[in-house]
Design brief:
globular; 5 helices; mainly alpha; 90 residues
Length: 90
């Protein structure tokens, strides 16, 4: 059985995790929602589980991501400064 997700080269759980992290990145950049509330809204049972998954995917803890992205946005930069760039998702 071939689904659209596996045909695109992503397992369903990998796709779901990446989708959740993109939503989290946007929320951390644009909103002041506490990380614990954001974690629950994305389906994580704890802030800790969410933070570990977020760091695994992006290379930064959620609060650090919020700080770096907002600082670069306010400085007119795009994305992360070169020393703070997150790891590529695998």
């Amino acid at each position: 059985m071939c689904t659209a997700l596996t045909a695109a080269g992503l397992a369903p759980l990998t796709y779901l995790t990446k989708w959740r992290m993109r939503l989290a990145e946007r929320a951390l950049r644009e909103k002041n929602t506490p990380v614990s509330v954001l974690a629950r809204s994305l389906g994580y049972t704890s802030e800790s589980a969410f933070s570990k998954a977020f760091k695994r995917v992006t290379g930064h803890a959620p609060k650090r991501h919020r700080t770096v992205v907002r600082a670069s946005d306010s400085a007119g930069e795009i994305g992360y400064p070169s020393r703070a760039r997150p790891r590529a998702a695998t």
